[in-house]
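Hi U.,

Before I forget, here's the chain from the pilot set. I'm dumping it here mostly so it's searchable later in email.
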Amino acid sequence: MPYFTQSRNIELSTLAFLETNLNTDWSGITTVKTFKKAYDTSTPIPIVCCRLADTNNARLELGATTLENRYLIIVDIFTSSDAQRVDLSDYVVDKLRLGWIYNTYAHASGNKSVIEATPAGRVFVTNWIANTKIDLGEGADPKDRYRQTISVLVRKSS
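Structure:
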């Protein structure tokens, strides 16, 4: 069974965590992984787009070959009003602050269309980079009029 890399597992675990919570606590919110899907005309707002933007590799200790990876996760929130933007961004921050389950993902044996998740630790936020309103002005694309970006550095528990 081919397994995914840790970077891909971080991204998919975060996306699954947000999607599960949003589906439980809100209604009508679409969760996507790419800007292409977020800007697709068939995808209605509100939208939460969660993606892995960067991986920072640092040596675990001086002289070691073991790396401690930190992952930059960006969550873009597209809404229909400033009030909804503020409420949804506060909700996402509140969920991320406690951490979430890290899953390893793999294709099911003999079936590449099925992805199986197996819990294998936790993901924690180590740095809150930004939680910012994106203001592109009145002429912006309707999906960008009320947009928020949350950026966090995360790591997987050992």
